[in-house]
Write a structure and sequence with these properties.
- This protein starts with a helix and ends with a strand.
- The strands form 2 sheets. Strands 3-4-5-6-7-8-9-10-11-12-13-16-17-18-19-20 form a 16-stranded antiparallel barrel.
- A hairpin with a 5-residue loop joins strand 3 and strand 4.
- The chain is mainly beta.
- The protein folds into 2 domains: 43 residues, no CATH class; 368 residues, Porin.
- The protein is 12% helix and 50% strand.
């Protein structure tokens, strides 16, 4: 793609040079070949899936721009197969800017989201929530990176994966409840290798604990997050550890095992870094834990992840002692498997289960909530151009009458385009 564009642009400039030469006095035609070479040298570098890049002649400055669009049609059916909800429109529209300044060791990453799904109004009244990532990194070596700003916390694998690299239209109900999402603060990562194949990574952060674009709530503490990743069979091809499915069809077995723990001191929101504000200016310290596994080989991919939340005194009460809110405590598990066939058709299955603890179960009105999903994906240019449809069935155990009756079946169709 890059070579084709360069050839086309070269021909265009050559033709323009001929026309210019015919219309311009000969004494002004100085170093025409050098001028053409200089123009080509400063043209943007265009690669499908890798954005449009600009860099200075000495490579001291670089900017890569990317766009991502996800259009979706969703239908929700009740227990009697009657339409109860429609969800039609642009689910995600992201713009991303990456590069370095002065030296490749000083890098930056910015990501903006413009749809209501991405830019939800904050509970503190601020509606300006389009900034997803805004980071400055210092990378002293290939093993270390230090960052300051706002980005994803290194919790569960499902949340670390980019939404542009999902097999299903969206992440699971387990991730929706327990993920710790994004936050502002200091981030550090260390990557190393033992022997020929064994790789590992240690990641950590100290952040505000309030979530993206929130600021700092009064009387709140900080959040401390740490994650360890092990790759006993070596790293995945093309960063396959952060993309779902096995589009590249790993030629040898690849395995990733990860775990993380996060402590949010005196959080002000129901889900730690996200969710509604706790009433009566309440504060609660929460612990979140994550464990995940990925295996890929020759087009087959298997994922399993579990995550949960702990909180002492999870009930938020009023002056009379009546429960007004409850922080969701318990855990969940998600399992999914997929296989990609010839001509880049893929089929994927996922089952997700929420398992609240006994007090939360009594408050929520069910013992378990489950979702089974089948997805069919057609890749045209990998995850950069794909169409995927998924079909979900929701069910619960020990539920109160009518629970989930209005969202028993969900069918979604999505088209993803990215450059």
């Amino acid at each position: 793609m890059k070579r084709t564009i360069s050839i086309v642009l070269s021909l265009y400039i050559a033709l323009q040079s001929i026309v210019w030469a015919q219309e311009t006095p000969q004494d002004t035609l100085i170093n025409t070949d050098a001028q053409v070479t200089e123009l080509l040298r400063n043209m943007p570098n265009v690669e499908v899936g890798k954005g449009v890049s600009f860099s200075s002649k000495d490579n001291r400055y670089k900017l890569t721009m990317r766009l991502r669009l996800q259009s979706m049609v969703g239908l929700t059916l009740d227990n009697n197969m009657n339409l109860s909800k429609t969800d039609v429109g642009i689910k995600r529209f992201h713009m991303r800017f990456d590069g370095h300044v002065f030296t490749p060791k000083v890098a930056y990453s910015i990501q903006l989201g413009y749809t209501p799904y991405d830019a939800k109004e904050l509970p503190n009244g601020s509606a300006m929530n389009i900034i997803r990532d805004a980071m400055i990194y210092y990378i002293p070596s290939s093993a270390w990176s230090l960052g300051l700003g706002q980005t994803k916390l290194r919790g569960g694998r499902a949340n670390i994966n980019s939404s542009s690299a999902l097999q299903f239209v969206d992440r699971s109900i387990v991730n929706s409840e327990f993920s710790i999402d994004r936050d502002f603060g200091l981030f550090a990562e260390f990557h190393n290798k033992i022997g020929k194949t064994f790789n590992y990574a240690i990641k950590g952060s100290i952040t505000t604990g309030e979530g993206r674009n929130y600021g700092m709530a009064l009387n709140s503490g900080l959040a401390y997050t740490a994650r360890v990743e092990l790759y006993p069979l070596g790293k995945f091809t093309s960063r396959g550890e952060v993309s779902e499915g096995s589009y590249v069809r790993e030629s040898s077995p690849k395995l990733a095992i990860g775990g993380a723990f996060s402590y949010n001191d005196r959080a002000s929101r129901l889900q730690g870094q996200k969710g509604s504000l706790l009433q009566n200016d309440s504060r609660r310290s929460m612990q979140a834990w994550f464990a995940d596994l990925i295996f890929k080989y020759q087009g087959f991919a298997f994922y399993a992840d579990a995550m949960g939340r702990l909180c002492h005194n999870a009930n938020i009460t009023d002056a009379n002692g009546d429960i007004q809110q409850r922080i969701y405590t318990g855990w969940g598990v998600n399992v999914q498997a997929s296989y990609i066939f010839t001509k880049d058709w893929e089929i994927a299955l996922r089952h997700s289960t929420l398992l609240p603890d006994s007090e939360t179960a009594q408050y929520e009105g069910y013992k378990t909530e489950n979702q089974a999903t089948l997805a069919i994906i057609k890749y045209f240019i990998g995850h950069n151009l794909k169409v995927h449809a998924d079909f979900s069935y929701n069910y619960a155990t020990g539920a109160t009458a009518g629970y989930l009756d209005n969202s028993r079946w969900i069918a979604r169709l999505s088209v993803d385009v990215g450059i």
